[in-house]
Structures are given as structure tokens and as C-alpha cells.
From TrEMBL:
This is TonB-dependent receptor. The keyword Glycoprotein does not apply. GO terms for cellular component: cell outer membrane. It is found in: Cell outer membrane. Its main location: membrane. The keyword Membrane applies. NCBIfam families: TonB-Xanth-Caul. It comes from Aurantiacibacter gangjinensis. Keywords: Cell outer membrane, Membrane, Receptor.
Length: 927
């Protein structure tokens, strides 16, 4: 058997195809090999007018239906409509349209994925079957790192197989690039698009128009035994955001103490995303049974943000000398202040910069051998590395230092503001009396005295400089052997994988202060830029500048932050994973159909080590902690495939998902505790502390899935019902656990009575239940009547329920969890013309926000519905044959991203982020 054809066949039957780094074949016209093939081709040409060629989006759907039907693992997939063209503007948006899958937006981009209602911390992403490093602190991949133009297919595995290495708890996302020897033709494709953000260029130095360009080349040489695929994609696009953010809400909702906005921290954010990605693959059929595949991917990712706004102490402003809120100045409805007035307010004008640079390297070498006697084997080496530098610079200005006030009038008064407000379900709007765009009024200073009293060891903190340097490197080595058999067992697979991963964070933080000990510095006129309009909040314009220019000029200086809090953030995590697996495939004719599937077991031995610092009563010491443990993961996937196009599936498995890497940090602060009620042994004094937990074990669950699928329309349509249940035996939540401080330096002072103390950190808990149901379909309307040729719908809806207990036995909110997710696309595609509209919905969920210092802050986000649409035309024949033009519209209803304060009142808004609509016009041309 020719190895290329054999590997293709394996891709549709077992997860071994992932190990061999092969993809399902792209559907092309089959070459005729009989003597009268030429005449047959001539006859077909005579009937061209009666032949409808399925391509584009319809072909992508048919490929996804075929992948779902033929694979024994429960999965969903999306395939490129053509070389270099996924169905959506980004890979994240394409994945978010799959049944049971959704996304969270970052600056309007779908960059993290939730599967079956659970967030990115519960799934794993691989590239061409290999594990990947991440650009964030967790293990989850941010999908805007990967250009959609270089992706050929994405497969989301909802159940594991023993031979699937790197699997997640709720799913595994496999991003696949082109295999050139599977294309069977020479291809040169180019593309470009222009994008427009309808909010406009909100900040000076930003744009509202961007562009993308890409090119892909595929060819075969040496009698089709050598194939080359090269792809490059460049992106330079702006994203705009108008945000309202509240510190929180003061009061308790009772008479005389209504809930009232505690403070405002709102920004206009302009993001410039620049990314260039390269991908290359070389395949060589060294002999009829030996295939070499070498591939590499590189992405340089730059995300620069201008964040300009005002921070206002309001209901929480007692410590900032803001006059207490008087309910008589406004209106109170149901224990909530919907309007009112604050006096003696001193705002902080913010001109912040956020720069994120990341380089992602990934690639590998695969050697696959297949003999004619049914034996096959492979060797695979994979490498992934991410270098990330994340810099945020906060800059503060106001009317004067710590309420003293800059005194332009010379009368000794302190300029403060009287601000009226109106709060509703879209946030709070304001009516100030000061002009925050007046450079004669606003100066560089520490308006609220955040740096403490300079006369008492403090400083004038006119900003903060926070640089986070992250290095993540992964080596993966894999070997596998397979043997085709007969009878019930059609094949046996045995393999071993070793993964070596190291990830570290180095913080580098400084205070920003006025030069020469000054408390207030005027903003140099040469650095003033076009004022930023906060009119959407009623605050009007504010002064604008680039703080980097002012620091470079020496007007502001950097002073190192020597607090113990800084090294406590650092970590270095080393993981060594040893995985062995055994899997046998099943294939049996039962008369009315067939039974297929796989049964196997995966055994994983983990060595994890965390290096960092601990603080014994404030004294820094280096510590190295870790753990070693086994996980045995049996799995079964069985499918009953009836000749009537019904498929019944049953899957059972034990699944794991490793903890966030930053949760494993060993940085711990600890000291003596003399409270006997807190002592785990009753002895005092004992040691108590807080920080990370280097001994964390993974999330663990026992899972069962049952699917009923009905295929129709010649295999182009499907209706599928999916039921699933997970018994989560081991969960990770924040809590207090018993911890042995043996090996740590003792705190200063009286020796503790015991080294067994407590640690406040992420801990393993008993878990709970997670279950749900999904209904999905793809229906081409021509199954009803030929008059509807080209029309169709695809989509799905999923419901999930969780009962997960936290450390104290209470029901815990799972990050990223949505009870309901749904999406649907209606389309028409025929004669070169195509149009489609898409809707995706998710119910409320616990969303991740980036807090101070890069820390993750989680808040409950409102339900959201996103509407997108596309219209295009592909020329078929003539001088423009191969040209496709299109127009995309994203977030057409301008749906905001909203989170709320947990008091049960929708008017208690914490975040209200409006991204606006985005439009893209572009083309692809395939030579």
C-alpha cells in the first residue's frame, strides 16, 4: 500500500493520524485511469451547464459533516473554503461557530474559546498534533496569535482517544496547516482585505482603517514525491473601545444607604494589532512506505494600546476627601441611587500605554513508515517557544498633588469638581464642572496621594511602570507503532511521548515620579496631542499625551519598586510528562451496518517543579517545590453505523486538565499565627501563609458521552443529539489547606510548635457534577426541492449544568461557564454568488479581565448575542477565474460586553465595553 493513501485512510478512522501529522484529504476531482477517461472528460464538458460544482462555504460544511461522520471520536471541525481562506475573519470566530463552542472577546476580537460552556482553562490546543506554548499566564492559547490565512482545518475533539496526547478536560483543539502532498496540484493564492472600525479613531495616534495581506504557495516535485507549502500573512488592524468601568458600589441597598457608584475608572482604548506569520511545510516520500514531514510556524505579534480616561473617587471617596453621597441630591429607586451629585471630587486623568510583544515559534519533524504487511510506525519531534514582553505604563495627572491643587488663579484654593451622575443598566454618565482638557489646569502629579506622604517615606507617584517578561519553551518527543489486524480488532497502536516544558515570569516594576523631587509638573506643550473625547460618558474632552515621550525627555523618571510583592510574582515552572498509551481499533460488520471504534488506556507520569521565593516574616529566601504523580486514563469510543445513515455513539473516559501554570508558583509569604482556632493541629504558634501551590494536582473527571446522529442528503446534511456527563472528582479552587513548611526557613522570633500549618492558595477540592445536552444540524435545502439549491442552515444549541463545590463546600462559579450557548448560520451559495448571516449567543458567564499587574480578575458577564454577515462573489471562468471578492460585517448590532456587580441589580454595572461594528472588504485570488 502506498504510504500517502494509507495515512489518509487512517486520518478518518483513528486519532493515530494526529500522531502521523496527516490531514483528511482535500476533495478534488478524481483522476480517471481507464483507457476512455479522456472521452469521459469530454462528455462531462458537454454537460457543464447542468453540473453544479460545490465549493466555498458549502464545501467547507460538507467536509465538516464528513469528518464528523467518519471519525470514531466525537468532534466538530471547520475547514478552509479554499487555500488561505477560512470562513470567518479570524480563527477564533470560526471555532466559535461550532456546536457547543463559544468565545470571549478581547478588544472586540474572539481570542479565547470555551467548549461545552467551560472556559479556556479546561481545554487544550495543539498545532498539527503537537502541544503548544501560550502567550498568557495560563495554558490556554490566544487564537489571535495564529493568522487564519495559514490554517487549513481546525478540529475540536470533545472526547479523547488513548493515542490523543495533550488532551483537555472538555475538549482538545487541533489547528492544522496544509500538507502539500495531499493537495495534488500546484497552487498560488493571494489575498488582501481592508477593515474599518465604525467607532472611528478615538485616540490621537490611532487609526480606524487597517489591512491584511496573505499569500500561499503549494507545489509538488519529483513525480509528486516531494511537496512544499509556504504561507505568509500580515495584519495591521486597529480596534477601538469605549469603556465604562466602576470601582464597585458603596452602600448596602437599605434605606438611607442605597447602592451608589463607588468610583469611576473609564477609558477610551485604541489598539493597534500588528502581526506577521510564516508557515512552511516540506513533505518527501522517501520511498513507497516512508514519508518525511518537516514543518515550521513563526508569528511576531505586537499589540499596542492607548488607554485614556478619568478615574473619579465617588461613593468610596471618604479616604480621598470626597464629600459623602447625599441621597437627597438625586433619586433612589429600589435601594439603588439612579442619580445624584458628588462634591469636592478630584479626578485622576489617565494617559496609559499598554504594549504587548510576543514571538511564537513552533515546528517539528515527523518520519512515518508503513509496510505492506500491516505494520506502521512513526517518530515525531516537536518544538514550541513563546517569548512575551508585556509592558504597561500608567500616567496620572490632575488639578494638583493629593488634593492640594495646582493654583492657576493664585488664590490658594484647591480646584475640585462637582459632578452630577445618572446610573442605569448601561453604566453611569456624568456632568462635571471642570474642563479636563485644559493644560493650564491639569498637571503631572499624584492627585490622590497613592504614593504616600513624601515627608514620611512615601513618594509622589505620578504613574506606574510594569513590565512582565514571560518565557515559555516546550520540547516534545514521540514514537508509535501500529499493526493492522483482522476480525473485531482492526488495528493496535502502542506509543510513548515525552514532553519537557519550562515557563517563567520575571516582573520588572518602577514608580513613575516627577523629576527633581517635584510634586507637580506642567505637561510640556510639545508633547500635548489631540484631546480625547469622553463625551459618551458626558465627561467631555481630556488632555492627551504619550507618557513614553515625557519619560524619555526626563520630565518624569523611573524609581525601582523594591517591595517584596514584586519578586513574589515571579515564578519558574518545569514540567516533565511521560506518557505511554495502548489502543486497539474495532471494526465489525453487523449486517445492517458496522460497529467501529477504539478502546485504550493512557498512562501519564508527571514531574512538576516550581522555583521562586518565599518570605519568612518579610525575609526573602529561595525555594524549590514540586510533586510527582501518575494518572491512568482509560478511554472508549464505540460507534454503531447503520446502512440507513444513522450513527449511534457511546464514549467513556477518564480525563484530566492540568492547573494554570501561574497557580503552581512557589512564591509564598508566611509568618507565625497564635490563633488556636486556625491551627490544623491545635498547636500554637503555627505557620500560616499564602501564595501559589506547587503541589497542585490536575482537574480530574470520569466522563460518558452518548450521541445520536442522522445523516442525509448524500452525506451533506446531519442532525445530531449529544448527551454528556462528567463526574469531576478533583477540582481546583482558592482555599485554605494544611501545608508542611519543612524545608522552609523558620520565621523570625519564637520557634513554631509545629511545621504543619496552613496555606491560602489554589487547592484541590472534591469537585462535583457537570452535564448537558447539545443539538446541532447542517441542512442543505436542496434535499427538499431543487428550487432551493444553494440555500441551507447550520448551527447548534447547547445546555450545561454544573454543581461544583469550592473548598468550603459551596457551589462554585466556574470560570468561563455559560449555561446556554447557541449559534446558527443561514447561507446561500450558487453560481459564484454567496451570502450568509450568523448569530451566536451565550448566557451569562464568569469572564476574565486583566487587572492591575496582569493579574486575572473575574466578574460575571451578561448574556451576549453577536450578529455577523458576509456577502461575496467568486468568478467562475473567464479572465477573472479564481478571483473571490467579499464584504464582511462583524458585530452588526454593536453588542457590548458587560459585567455586573454581584448585588442582583442590573444597574450595578462594573464594565460596559462598546467595540462598535467592523467592516472588511477583501479578495482572494487563486492562480
Amino acid at each position: 500500500m502506498n504510504i500517502r493513501n494509507s495515512l489518509r485512510a487512517g486520518a478518518s478512522t483513528t486519532a493515530f493520524a494526529i500522531a502521523a501529522l496527516t490531514l483528511p484529504s482535500v476533495a478534488f476531482a478524481q483522476d480517471a485511469d481507464e483507457p476512455d477517461a479522456q472521452q469521459a472528460e469530454t462528455d462531462a464538458d458537454d454537460e457543464d451547464d447542468n453540473v453544479i460544482i460545490v465549493s466555498g462555504f458549502r464545501a467547507s460544511l460538507e467536509s465538516a459533516v464528513s469528518e464528523k461522520r467518519d471519525n470514531d471520536v466525537i468532534l466538530e471541525s471547520v475547514t478552509a473554503e479554499d487555500i488561505g481562506r477560512l470562513p470567518d475573519a479570524s480563527i477564533g470566530e470560526s471555532i466559535a461557530r461550532l456546536p457547543g463552542v463559544t468565545s470571549q472577546r478581547l478588544n472586540g476580537r474572539a481570542n479565547v474559546i470555551s467548549i461545552r460552556g467551560l472556559g479556556p482553562d479546561f481545554s487544550q490546543t495543539i498545532l498539527n498534533g503537537r502541544e503548544q506554548t501560550s502567550t498568557g499566564d495560563s495554558r490556554s492559547v490566544e487564537f489571535d496569535q495564529y493568522p487564519s490565512e495559514i490554517v487549513n482545518q481546525v478540529v475540536v475533539y470533545k472526547t479523547p482517544a488513548a493515542s490523543l496526547v495533550g488532551q483537555g478536560l472538555v475538549g482538545t483543539i487541533d489547528i492544522r496547516t496544509i500538507r502539500p502532498l495531499e493537495v495534488n496540484e500546484s497552487v498560488l493564492a493571494i489575498g488582501g482585505r481592508v477593515s474599518y472600525a465604525d467607532l472611528g479613531a478615538l485616540n490621537a495616534g490611532s487609526d480606524d482603517i487597517g489591512y491584511r495581506a496573505n499569500a500561499t504557495f503549494v507545489d509538488q516535485f519529483a513525480d509528486d514525491t516531494v511537496g512544499v507549502a509556504l504561507a505568509v500573512a500580515y495584519t495591521n488592524e486597529p480596534y477601538q473601545l469605549q469603556e465604562f468601568n466602576a470601582w464597585g458600589y458603596a452602600g448596602n441597598g437599605q434605606p438611607g444607604s442605597p447602592y451608589v457608584i463607588g468610583g469611576n475608572k473609564s477609558f477610551v482604548t485604541s489598539t493597534g494589532l500588528e502581526r506577521i506569520g510564516f508557515n512552511g511545510t516540506v513533505q518527501a516520500e522517501l520511498s513507497s512506505n516512508l514519508m518525511l514531514t518537516v514543518d515550521g510556524f513563526y508569528s511576531n505579534f505586537s499589540d499596542e494600546q492607548f488607554k485614556r480616561g478619568i478615574e473619579l473617587p465617588l461613593g468610596f471617596g471618604g479616604g480621598f476627601d470626597v464629600d459623602p453621597f447625599d441621597p437627597s441630591t438625586g433619586t433612589v429607586d429600589g435601594g439603588f441611587a439612579t442619580s445624584g451629585e458628588f462634591t469636592d471630587v478630584r479626578g485622576v486623568v489617565r494617559n496609559d500605554i499598554f504594549e504587548r510583544e510576543a514571538d511564537l515559534y513552533s515546528g517539528g519533524v515527523n518520519l512515518a513508515w508503513e509496510n505492506n504487511d500491516g505494520w506502521s510506525a512513526f517518530l515525531d519531534f516537536g518544538y514550541s517557544r513563546t517569548d512575551r514582553n508585556e509592558l504597561s505604563i500608567e500616567s496620572y495627572s490632575g488639578t494638583g498633588y493629593n488634593g492640594d491643587g495646582f493654583d492657576p488663579q493664585g488664590d490658594g484654593t484647591s480646584p475640585s469638581d462637582t459632578i452630577r451622575f445618572v446610573s442605569d443598566s448601561e453604566g453611569t454618565s456624568f456632568d462635571p464642572t471642570l474642563d479636563y482638557s485644559d493644560p493650564n489646569l491639569i498637571v503631572l502629579t499624584d492627585p490622590l496621594g497613592w504614593g504616600g506622604d513624601p515627608d514620611d517615606g512615601g513618594r509622589v507617584q505620578a504613574g506606574y511602570f510594569n513590565n512582565r517578561i514571560i518565557d515559555d519553551e516546550l520540547f516534545q518527543y514521540r514514537i508509535g507503532v501500529s499493526r493492522e489486524l483482522w476480525g473485531w480488532v482492526s488495528a493496535v497502536h502502542v506509543g510513548f511521548n515525552y514532553t519537557d516544558r519550562d515557563k517563567s515570569l520575571t516582573p520588572d516594576e518602577f514608580f513613575v515620579q516627577p523629576a527633581n523631587g517635584a510634586r507637580e509638573v506642567p505637561i510640556p506643550s510639545q508633547f500635548l496631542q489631540r484631546s480625547t473625547d469622553l463625551g459618551y460618558l458626558g465627561l467631555g474632552p481630556i488632555v492627551s499625551y504619550d507618557v513614553r515621550d515625557i519619560i524619555d525627555a526626563g520630565v518624569l523618571t523611573l524609581s525601582p519598586n523594591l517591595s517584596n510583592d514584586i519578586p513574589a510574582k515571579a515564578y519558574a515552572i518545569a514540567e516533565d510528562l511521560y506518557t505511554g498509551y495502548f489502543q486497539f481499533d474495532i471494526e465489525r460488520d453487523i449486517g445492517a451496518g458496522m460497529i467501529t471504534g477504539n478502546i485504550g488506556v493512557q498512562a501519564v507520569y508527571t514531574e512538576q517543579e516550581s522555583s521562586g521565593v518565599a518570605f519568612a516574616a518579610g525575609q526573602q529566601v529561595d525555594v524549590v517545590l514540586g510533586d510527582r504523580y501518575w494518572d491512568v486514563l482509560p478511554s472508549m469510543n464505540l460507534s454503531v453505523r447503520l446502512d440507513s445513515d444513522w450513527v449511534f455513539r457511546l464514549a467513556a473516559s477518564r480525563q484530566i486538565q492540568r492547573a494554570r501554570l501561574d497557580s503552581l508558583r512557589s512564591a509564598i509569604g508566611y509568618g507565625l499565627n497564635n490563633n488556636p482556632a486556625d491551627s490544623p493541629t491545635g498547636q500554637i504558634p503555627f505557620i500560616s501563609g499564602g501564595g501559589g501551590n506547587p503541589t497542585l494536582r490536575p482537574y480530574r473527571a470520569n466522563a460518558i458521552d452518548f450521541n445520536v446522529e442522522r445523516y442525509f442528503g448524500g452525506g451533506s446534511g446531519v442532525v445530531a443529539l449529544q448527551l454528556f456527563y462528567k463526574d469531576i472528582e478533583n477540582y481546583i479552587a482558592n482555599g485554605r489547606t494544611v501545608f508542611n513548611y519543612a524545608g522552609f526557613p523558620l520565621p523570625a522570633g519564637q520557634p513554631p510548635a509545629t511545621l504543619v500549618g496552613t496555606l491560602d492558595a489554589p487547592v484541590n477540592t472534591s469537585g462535583g457534577d457537570f452535564y448537558g445536552v447539545e443539538l446541532s444540524t447542517t441542512i442543505p435545502f436542496d434535499i427538499f426541492t431543487s428550487a432551493l439549491e444553494g440555500f441551507g442552515v447550520t448551527g447548534g444549541v447547547g445546555w450545561t449544568e454544573t454543581k461544583i463545590e469550592d473548598f468550603n463546600g459551596n457551589i462554585d462559579a466556574i470560570p468561563g461557564y455559560s449555561e446556554w450557548v447557541a449559534n446558527g448560520t443561514a447561507y446561500y451559495e450558487r453560481g459564484g454568488f454567496n451570502i450568509r448571516g450568523s448569530v451566536r449567543y451565550r448566557s451569562e458567564f464568569l469572564a476574565d479581565f486583566s487587572g492591575f499587574g496582569g493579574n486575572i480578575v473575574r466578574r460575571v458577564a451578561r448574556p451576549e448575542t453577536i450578529v455577523d454577515a458576509q456577502i461575496g462573489y467568486e468568478f467562475e471562468g473567464g479572465a477573472l477565474d479564481g478571483l473571490n471578492i467579499y464584504l464582511n460585517g462583524s458585530n452588526l448590532t454593536n453588542t457590548p460586553f458587560v459585567s455586573e456587580f454581584d448585588v442582583g441589580d442590573p444597574r450595578a454595572v462594573i464594565d460596559y465595553q462598546e467595540y462598535g461594528r467592523r467592516f472588511q472588504a477583501g479578495f482572494t485570488y487563486r492562480f
